[in-house]
Amino acid sequence: LPPHPPGGGGGSPSSPKAPAAPGGQEPGAPGVGSVQVQAAAEWLMDLKRPWAVGRKQARELGAELAEAVAETGWDLDASLALWLCRTEEGKKAPDNHRAVLRHRIEQLERRTSVFPTTRDDTAVASSAGGTPAWCGICNRGERPLSLMERLLDVGDDEQVRCPRCHPAALRTTPPAKKK
User: Fold this and answer.
1) How far is CA 126 from CA 89, 112, 133, in A?
2) Which residues does 15 contact at the CB level (< 8 Å), separation at least 6?
3) Do 56 and 105 lie in a common domain?
4) Helical residues (DSSP H) of the chain, grouped into ranges
5) SS3 of 21, please?
6) Which of 75, 78, 92, 112 has the fewest C-beta atoms under 10 angstroms from its C-beta?
7) Same domain for 93 and 127
8) Does the pTM of the predicted model rise above 0.85?
9) Are residues 101 and 127 part of one domain?
C-alpha cells in the first residue's frame, strides 16, 4: 500500500464520515433537518415555566423532539405543549419537570392516539391543528380561550371535562354504549 500523507489527504479516509444528507439533514435522524431541530429547540425554550428549558438542554432535546414530531404526526403547537406539560390525572405535579419532559418526548405517542377526531357515532369536527372543535355547550356557552376551559358545571363549585370536546376527556372516556 502506498504511504498516506499526514491528515489523511489524498487517499481514502481512515475513518469514513457519513455524508451530509440533502437539505441540511442531520445524520442519524432520517427526514429531520437542522431547520426542524432548531425550530424544536426554540419551541422548547418558549414553553411556559416551569417546563421551559435553557439553551443547552434545548439543543439536546431539540433533535429528539424534531424526530419524534416527524414520526408521530404532531406539530410544534399548543396541543403538543398541552400534552407534554400536562399533570396526569390522579397524580401530583412533577417535581423534576425537565426529566419528565425528556421522558415524554422520548415516549411520544402518535397524535391521533392522543387526540382522536371521532368517537363512536358522534364525530367531533376538528379545528385547525386537529384538536376537537368546541361543542358550544361547555364553558357556560362562552367560547373558551383555551382547550383547558372546555368544562361543564356539575355542582356549586365543581367542574368536569366536557365529554364532547375536551381533548383529555375524549382520550380517556370510553365510548357510550348504545341501548
Assistant:
1) 24, 12, 5
2) none
3) yes
4) 34-45, 55-72, 78-84, 97-106, 111-114, 167-172
5) strand
6) 92
7) no
8) no
9) no
